[in-house]
Amino acid sequence: MLQLRKLSAQLLGILVIVLLASCTEQERSHMIGITGEVDQAIAESLSFGIIFPMADPSYELITEHAEKMAQSHNIRLLVAAPDEANLEQQIRIMESMIRQKVDGIAISPVDAEALEPVINQAIDNNIPVICFESDAPNSKRLSFIGADNYETGRQLGMATNKLLNNKGMIIVGTGMSDMLSLKQRLEGLLNYINEETEIEVLQVKYNEGKKDIAIEKLEEMINEHPHFSAFLSLDSVSSSASILIWKAAGMNRYVLSIGKTAESETAIHNGQIHTIISQNEHSWGSTIIDTLMKANQQTVIPSFIDMGIEELNTTKQ
After folding, report:
1. CA–CA separation, 154 and 149 (whole Å)
2. 3-state SS of 140-198?
3. pTM exceeds cut of 0.90
4. What is the C-alpha separation between 86 and 91, in angstroms, rounded?
5. Band (45; pLDDT cuts 50, 70, 90)
6. Domain 149-278 superfamily per CATH
């Protein structure tokens, strides 16, 4: 229930941000009052925007660390996301932040190619833009914060191979079909499994960033392939769906997941997940703020800030 209240509060904040973008100055001041007084010094300082692919509890830790870092440097932070994974909403949020003339934007693009024009528009308006989690490499963005997603997929394959002793059958759940990071993870996973192991990939299904679809697709795969050896999750939504189903059904098959969240950490302690391949997501929030600050100081920043890959499992936590 506490987690639900946190998510509801975040969604309210997202709604306020979207509404603020479309209001007059007088209306905007009134609406800010709904969420509390705004410190004048902060209002006159730098302002950064973070745009997630969707409103999801998996991004709470990144937000928490980004907010803490921003507050320590007197930076006003706008955190926004579509209610569900939605390209058009992400574009509108990005355009709103450009109109508000924020001093920097960090975005995890749901579709790199489709978001290139609006990322370039921000850069052309002298607003630094960095990507995190998923890249838009052909845009004018300054940097990408995350890990090598192809290699992350391979690491998931290696962990699976070690666990299954080079045999068995797997089913795979993933998120948005147009998201570059998920394409790269899947490619790395399948290339390793098909080229280096005798493991059979039974099926791959997409949830498009929607938890109800993730649950439905996973239940379908379980029913169609009851003798599977392990379920592999490439995104937090698939991971969350597996935790619910494993709890409800008392499943004893292996689950291996990409992405460390509070939920997946609890699940690994409780035995619903065996292995997590983490990209050190807990460090993304502070790194985002630090990188945007450097961009505003005209400091040269690398085009790729590699956060690394770490394996966590029931014997190594």
Report:
1. 9
2. CCCEEEECCHHHHHHHHHHHHHHHHCCCCEEEEEECCCCCHHHHHHHHHHHHHHHHHCC
3. no
4. 9
5. confident
6. Response regulator (3.40.50.2300)
